[in-house]
Amino acid sequence: MTRAEFDALLASLIERDGALLFRDQAGPSRKGDEDVDLYVFSGHLEALRSEEIDGEIEEHLMDLGYPPAASEEAAWEQVRDFYLERGCVLLRVEADEYVLSEQLAQHLKLL
């Protein structure tokens, strides 16, 4: 996905009551609706590797029960593989990578 396509996807969403909804399907806006930017979106992901947000990859790897990796790249590969082996979906946006649950990917019409 290009950065422009990704930005358009985020702009088409709102977060309401902890869920991501498409603006055109959400009906009238409500108090508490939040625009979705990368930070809001990141709260719905399993893992991410992004230049814009520090995903704390080493800490995430340790939370999964793995020993420290030799490099950040190796840590990301282990984290990414952990989730992909469990049915998650990898979304690449230029150099960034985001791991989503299959359910979220389907909801966002990415599959």
TrEMBL record:
Domain of life where this protein originates: Bacteria
Lineage of source species: Bacteria, Thermotogati, Deinococcota, Deinococci, Deinococcales
Originating organism: Deinobacterium chartae
Protein name according to UniProt: Uncharacterized protein
